[in-house]
Amino acid sequence: MQAMATSASQISARIIEAVMAQKLAPGSRLGEQQLAMLFDCSRTIVREALTRLAARGIVTVSARRGWFVIEPSQDEAREAFEARRVIELGLIRSAGSAGKIDKAALRELKAHLQREKAALKESDVGNRSFLLGDFHVCLAECLGNTLLADTLRDYTARTTLIAMLYQSTHDAVQSCEDHVQIVAALERGDPAAAEALMAAHIGTVQSALRVQAPADPLAQLRDALAPLQNTNTAAAAAPKGKRRKAAASPASDSSSYLGALL
Fold first, then answer.
1. How many CB atoms lie within 10 A of CB 158?
2. Host domain of residue 142
3. pTM of the full predicted structure?
4. Tens digit of pLDDT for each residue in 108-142?
5. What is the rounded CA–CA span in Å between residue 12 and residue 74?
6. CB under 8 Å to 144, separation ≥6 — which residues?
7. CA 14 to CA 7: how far, in whole Å?
């Protein structure tokens, strides 16, 4: 890859784009020196870009290990989708109260949909993933709120990471069709339908995640340290002297004590 960007804002934009295209997986390491060489800039600029992304919740840093793309927890996944619901449904509701969406915005949305449909026919999964996520950013821009568009870009990147981490089974073709229906509702001046369609769309994407019930972090240790079930049999098989000693001091059975604690 040739170095194209040298400013912190350009580097952070490229990283966001790579996340939305599913080219940077959750937990990917982002080395300062490697990025500085790639973008032909100083490590100071790279560090500034990564610091910005950390503030936006896209990367995280460890004092000893360096910078990494975030790995959202199940609670963070739920919160990210809920935030998108609040923002996107609110945007559509506000647009409806302001009147019918203008023709220039509709043309932009339809052009984006055409790019989505073309990407579905190609083998470039990254481009397809990026366009499907970027529709929501484009919609916010077309509805006249660039500030929320920037916020949605970050949340869309995070939900992309969530889909990768929890192996989403969501159908890209269905996602594109949902977008088509949302734009059609806006075009005919029916924001209530568009809002309902968006709510269903986000819900469908979220329900496709394979999120499992949280595992018991002590399960393996609990099983290993549980009291033995055949303690009586073992005592009977022991020599008489040892049996008497064991019977005389049951409180000294460390496995029983640890099992009670666990």
1. 25
2. 74-207
3. 0.75
4. 999 999 999 999 999 899 999 999 999 999 999 99
5. 25
6. 95, 105
7. 11
